[in-house]
Amino acid sequence: MGTSSALPQKQDLPKEIWKAATTLSDDAQNAAMRKARELRFDLSILRHASISTTTAHYVFPNPDKTKAGLRKLAEAVRKTYTIKV
């Protein structure tokens, strides 16, 4: 029988959502570094230990995709935690 991870408590959702939204996989970090080098960015100005910190705070995605993604996330959270609006 498969195991599933426990769902976070309601009060922990904002922290867990933030963690998921600001963490890049190793592949994504490597792709970002390749692109930065390709565009000849000065990587010495990055003061963070991880590119995911930089992208989380300084790189802004497409606003329409962001809104659509947040709507999808909100709906999933409402269904999972039976939150009525």
Describe what you observe in this structure:
With 85 residues, the protein is mainly alpha-helical. The protein has one domain. The chain is built from four helices and no strands. The longest helix is centred in the last third of the chain and has 18 residues, at 63-80.
How would you briefly describe this protein structure?
By secondary structure, the chain is an all-alpha fold.
- The helicity comes to 55-70%
Structural class assignment: mainly alpha
Which stretches are poorly predicted, pLDDT < 50 over at least 5 residues? none
Number of strands: 0
The H/E string reads HHHH
Give the total of domains.
1
Number of helices: 4
Morphology: elongated
> Roughly what is the average pLDDT, rounded to an integer?
76
C-alpha Rg (nearest Å)? 17 Å
Percent in strands: under 5%
Cα distance, first to last residue? 35 Å
- Biggest sheet architecture: none
